[in-house]
Amino acid sequence: MDTKINILAFTGSLRRNSYNKASLRAARDLVPEGASLDIVDLALIPFFNEDLEAEGIPQVVVDFKRKIALADALLIATPEYNYSIPPVLKNALDWASRGTDLPLYGKPLAIMSASPSMFGGVRAQYHLRQVCVVLNLLLLNKPEVFIMNANTKFDQDGTLMDDYTRNVISKLLQALVDKARELNEK
Ligand SMILES: Cc1cc2nc3c(=O)[nH]c(=O)nc-3n(C[C@H](O)[C@H](O)[C@H](O)COP(=O)(O)O)c2cc1C
Q1: What's the structural domain count of the chain?
Q2: Global pTM exceeds 0.90
Q3: Of 64, 70, 73, 158, which is the most exposed, with the fewest CB atoms less than 10 Å away?
Q4: Cβ 18 under 6 angstroms from ligand 1
């Protein structure tokens, strides 16, 4: 019997009607049997500042790092801001990269992006891939999930209506769960 795989998911968008938040909710519904997906909100993580760090790691950061440590795998849905990842996401990764406990190190990760543009956030994904190298995140290469023209793929309640996208997110999640299982068995 396979052990349960816990996926922790987050996005760099704080927007109420965010397509990336909506894509994480879609992923939660599509998660394979034997796995679960929790979405963590990055809104309360303060801007990184070494002075703040020296005063003591904020509890919200401690909690975020603990959630990462307890997860078997991570899922990030990133918006694209000026061809890159938004500061909220970079800031959270920066906090998580500090200290002696490095929960991101060696953790399997899947990424996706949603944008109203016809490129679907592809450029942000490639910046995110670069950041993941130094963090030693084990980022899946395939399948690639770019939710382009996102404004046409979700209904007014933020439900993902596009079958192709639902299918490719399912495949991404299955690949992530397979990778996490493989690593857990080592
Ligand atoms: C500061 C800023 C820069 C943006 N730059 C890009 C961009 O380079 N490429 C792109 O496809 N969309 C860009 N957008 C549009 C976002 O993709 C769009 O706002 C998207 O809905 C954000 O993701 P969300 O729906 O999850 O909040 C930008 C938006 C903002 C606010």
Answers
A1: 1
A2: yes
A3: 70
A4: yes
